[in-house]
Amino acid sequence: MRAPRGAATVPPVGHIQHIPGIVPTFPVPKAAQLKRVGVLGLHEGRTMLTCLDRAAHAIATAGCDLDPDKLANCRAQCPGLFFTNDYAALLARDDVDVVAIYTPDPQHGEHIEAAFRAGKDVICTKPLVASMADAQRVLAAARATGRQLLVGQSTRFFEPFLRQRRAHDRGELGALELVDAHYVHRMDWYYEKSAWVAREADWVFLGLSHPIDLLCWYLGPIRCVQAMGARSALAQHHGLPGNDVFTVQVTAMDGRIGRAMGNYGCHELPSARNAIELVLWGSASTSQAQYHDMRHRYARPDGTEVTEDPLYALRHHYFHSEVHGMHYGEFANYAEHFAVSLLEGTRPAPDLRDGIATFCVMEAVRRAIASGRTIEVAPLRAEAGLED
Ligand SMILES: NC(=O)c1ccc[n+]([C@@H]2O[C@H](COP(=O)([O-])OP(=O)(O)OC[C@H]3O[C@@H](n4cnc5c(N)ncnc54)[C@H](O)[C@@H]3O)[C@@H](O)[C@H]2O)c1
């Protein structure tokens, strides 16, 4: 993956690092070749519409939402772009190369297929799909049309997770012996904001998609899954039909192991447990990446614990100059990565196959909870239409 702007320089180690000299200026100069992005779903998608001032190879051209208030707000913020409440009108436009999808989880399959069949490449937010039928549908549509897709797994593209990955790829952690990820977040605000979440969402997809994607990123194909689920008091209060508290254990095809945890009814303890954390336990070192703080911690060979903390240096890129905020930097990073991969003909990651493989692990979690048994993932990959 091409390193995002402002992240190419890995600073010298020290206990607390603030990276000097990386204060981005906006807007970023645009490259000669650009991918033009139309955004569907303008709540989380509004972030994508407005973050591309920090991407060199992507530009926003259009937005679509059914809600007139969201359209009016985006129109005021982004004058000059095309806005519509009709997805077909967005898909018909010649100035949209890539459709970025931020509609409710159960609609992703339908919206991805429509974009592929209109000749567009797709960024789809996590979870890529939330049913086996939709997994089969988007794979079949991709094969029929030859279009490309990137899963917008924002966590992979947040600064500490990028640094942790580069350290892993340089071999600094040695062999991974345990991968440990969680996403915890109290969700009453989400039930109040978006009625579909309490009614239709499954937290295995909506929430666990973050830590399970991280396990898949490092462990590769997963052989089997064990999982337990429970319903918090918050879930019961909002009438959720399913679980919102989870523990998951996975074994990879190569025998390595990992665990994921999610809790969407919790009372948060953010300084002790950031919303998302990934700990890589390796034979040569241990490292931790955090979101919403921006820390990357690791052990040096002499045992010194190092903390890189670029929050203040990079808040202009990752947030809107607030200390914490929306996902502007991550969304810009993955849009830039996808645009460059399309322009250069390289494979984006996580692509459609990666996303379907991760879906199959999440589906295995659901089936493991329902049955109380260990679930093998290979039959689910075959059911989805992924050849191993
Ligand atoms: N870290 C992340 O990347 C991240 C964070 C939050 C949410 N998400 C994902 O983003 C997606 C959207 O979440 P949200 O919180 O913005 O939901 P939301 O309910 O706030 O917004 C969804 C929007 O889609 C619009 N919409 C629905 N159907 C449409 C259609 N046919 N045509 C046009 N517009 C349509 C709705 O009007 C609404 O404005 C979900 O899949 C969620 O999982 C990702």
Give the arrangement of secondary structure elements.
Elements: E1 16-17, E2 35-40, H1 44-51, E3 58-64, H2 68-77, E4 82-84, H3 87-91, E5 98-101, H4 108-117, E6 121-125, H5 132-145, E7 149-152, H6 159-169, E8 176-184, H7 188-193, H8 195-200, H9 203-206, H10 209-219, E9 222-230, H11 233-237, E10 245-252, E11 257-263, E12 276-282, E13 286-291, E14 296-299, E15 305-308, H12 311-318, H13 328-344, H14 352-371, E16 375-376, H15 378-384
Parallel strand pairs: 1-15, 2-3, 2-5, 3-4, 5-6, 6-7, 8-11
Antiparallel strand pairs: 8-12, 9-10, 9-16, 10-11, 12-13, 13-14, 14-15
Helix pairs in contact: 1-13, 4-5, 5-14, 10-14
Bound molecules: nicotinamide-adenine-dinucleotide.
The site of nicotinamide-adenine-dinucleotide has 24 residues, from loops.
